[in-house]
Design goal:
single chain; about 625 residues; alpha+beta; seven-stranded antiparallel sheet; six-stranded mixed sheet; disordered N terminus
Length: about 625
């Protein structure tokens, strides 16, 4: 067995594995054979000759070679070709075509994430482009890799008869080198509970087209399309249609029509703001055929194209009637979707939901110039509120600007001013920091109320509240400590007790308290940088901006560097001057001399006030 694989092992070393372009079938053909320079040979007969079995999904019974195999239409399936123990597929080619005249160009696709298989309607093989005929799809191997089983996606959106041809190569060179079977597949529509209209159309309300959350009354919102109960305009060019639901409904029926010729997207939002990130979208691409994944369900993890991707096959659960179409009147996305699905944002059959929509610039999945958010109770007719994504953007910009002024400007400057003994400047900057922080929190509180959101949803508001409480405690402590130290120092000097304890002046206690306060404020700056990081992350996710989340850390580090420099200069100045004890003794002597030189009255009081100021400055 090993020696028979030596040619394969040698070939797998020297054939380049560059995006799978140097392997696979050279043609999208029907019948036996997998044309290619590294896989010629003769067929050994049917797959069953080599005990090769083909399964659909998790069925325990394989497909039958000589009978019609019935499977559900409009449901994605996985085809698994399983080889017996001791055998491996070193090449494969699967082809789907319809014997009933239906379009099978979307029937076969590689399983997402499976690098060993490529294809669809076209692929490259040995540097040459391969294209399938109209209405045909196929998949083939990407590399020369021994596989115990081969997988592919199989889907038909409607009832149809399909020929599923499978070629499996197990040996090269030598004969026989591959085995082939043409399976007959009959796709039949499953029993599907469709959310049909459950109440008669009524005159109600439709949303305003302006960015507002107010509900605007109009005369009617009865649908102009027979299959739907209600309709309203999302914009001058976009209209949403739907059927009402009840508490027992399991599905919703929707339709988005635009007069533009572009891709269409409709999404269930994770919160009332209608954020794109975290939403689950249904996207229809007009230039691609209708398949189980077009229109398909997409994850949206960021605002860039690579963050919008198809969900796994098991999550492509849109039901029959879901399609994307385009004609002279524009583009229409129709869908039938389950209300509650595992791991996805649920849709309430009764109660307010937040939906979003987007219309592309063209038919390709890319940037969308038109988008919006609306709130809808599917059971309540046209009682709808619509809002724009930018309704509160200015408020959040103001909130962020005030916090930057407070914690990237005023707070670190106050710390540096205190280090340089500019006490009045430090006090004013502390007040500015407090004022900006308080106003910013007020802006955030009012905006959250307008959005109808939870005040403490997410990391940013919770961490912000904790830091603000810590900040209030810090301010109170700083005021109390400063007053007590100043009062105690002055009292000790005026009672002459400091002369009796020159070796242990109260200046030592002052330094310890100042050290504690420096640590407290420095910790606050670090915590605030973390809070601003989460704030920028939330803002970017909400509005699709790309502001650097690390910016607060860079600013804090820059101020820390400035503070260290000022600290070094302060230490150098202290080194050049006398010690604190000498200063205290010197002030004491000055005070005593002033008492001897000055008589009673004004001169004595003036000297006492001068000493008072000098001692207070030393204490700070």
């Amino acid at each position: 067995m090993f020696f028979g694989r030596i040619p394969f092992l040698a070939l797998s070393i020297f054939v380049p594995k560059v995006s799978g372009t140097f392997e696979g079938s050279l043609t999208c053909h029907t019948g036996e054979d997998i044309p290619g320079p590294t896989h010629s040979g003769q067929s050994g007969g049917l797959l069953s000759v080599k005990s090769i079995e083909v399964y659909i999904d998790n069925n325990t019974e394989p497909l039958l070679e000589n009978e019609v195999n019935v499977i559900d239409a409009a449901v994605p399936h996985t085809v698994t070709v399983r080889l017996p123990e001791g055998e491996n597929a070193i090449g494969h080619y699967l082809r789907a075509s319809s014997s009933s005249g239906h379009d099978a160009s979307g029937a076969l696709r590689p399983v997402p994430g499976d690098a060993d298989t490529k294809g669809g309607t076209s692929w490259d093989s040995y540097g040459r482009p391969v294209n399938c005929d109209e209405g045909v799809s196929a998949v083939t191997q990407s590399f020369i890799t021994p596989l115990q089983e081969v997988n592919a996606q199989l889907f038909m959106s409607e009832e149809a008869d399909v020929n599923l041809e499978i070629n499996i190569m197990i040996k090269w060179p030598g004969n026989p080198s591959f085995y082939y079977t043409n399976f007959q597949i009959n796709f039949q529509a499953p029993e599907i509970p469709v959310a049909s209209p459950s109440s008669s159309p009524t005159s109600s309300q439709v949303p305003s087209l302006s960015p507002t959350s107010d509900i605007v009354t109009t005369t009617t919102c009865v649908s102009d399309v027979d299959e739907y109960e209600f309709m309203y305009s999302l914009s001058n060019e976009v209209t949403f249609y739907w059927n009402s639901t009840t508490a027992d409904s399991e599905y919703m029926v929707g339709r988005v029509h635009t007069s533009k010729k572009a891709y269409v997207s409709w999404a269930v939002a994770p919160d009332r703001r209608g954020r794109m990130v975290g939403s689950e979208a249904i996207v229809g691409l007009p230039e691609l055929p209708n398949t189980y994944s077009n229109p398909g369900k997409y994850h949206m993890v960021n605002y860039f194209l690579d963050g919008t991707y198809l969900m796994d096959d098991s999550q492509q659960t849109l039901m029959e009637g879901s399609q994307i179409s385009q004609d002279d009147s524009g583009t229409t996305l129709s869908f039938v979707k389950k209300l509650v699905e595992v791991g996805e944002v649920p849709i309430l059959p009764v109660g307010e939901n937040t939906f979003s929509w987007a219309i592309g610039a063209n038919n390709d999945l890319n940037w969308h110039p038109d988008y919006g958010v609306f709130h809808l109770d599917l059971s309540a007719g046209c009682n709808v509120a619509q809002q724009g994504l930018s309704d509160h953007k200015a408020n959040w910009k103001l909130h962020g600007l005030l916090m930057v002024i407070a914690w990237c400007g005023a707070a670190p400057l106050a710390l540096i001013a205190a280090q340089m003994k500019f006490w009045r400047v430090s006090s004013n900057l502390n007040f500015l920091c407090f004022l900006c922080t308080t106003i910013a929190i007020g802006v955030a509180h009012n905006t959250v109320n307008e959005e109808g959101m939870d005040h403490f949803e997410g990391t940013h508001p919770i961490s912000g509240l904790v830091v603000f409480v810590f900040y209030m405690f810090h301010l109170a402590l700083e005021i109390v400590v400063a007053r007590n130290i100043n009062k105690r120092n002055l009292q000790e000097y005026e009672s002459n007790e400091v002369q009796k304890n020159v070796d242990k002046p109260v200046r030592i206690e002052t330094s310890l308290w100042h050290f504690f306060l420096y640590i407290s404020r420095s910790t606050l700056l670090i915590f605030c940088a973390i809070v601003m990081y989460f704030g920028l992350e939330t803002y970017n996710d909400h509005y699709g901006e790309n502001i650097s989340k690390e910016l607060p850390f860079f600013i804090t580090l820059a101020w820390a560097f400035v503070w260290v420099i000022t600290k070094i200069f302060a230490c150098y100045d202290m080194y050049q001057s006398t010690t604190d004890e000498d200063n205290i003794l010197q002030v004491t002597n000055i005070y005593q001399e002033s008492l001897h030189r000055s008589g009673p009255g004004v001169r004595k009081e003036e000297k006492r006030r001068e000493m008072h100021v000098e001692v207070e400055n030393m204490s700070l």
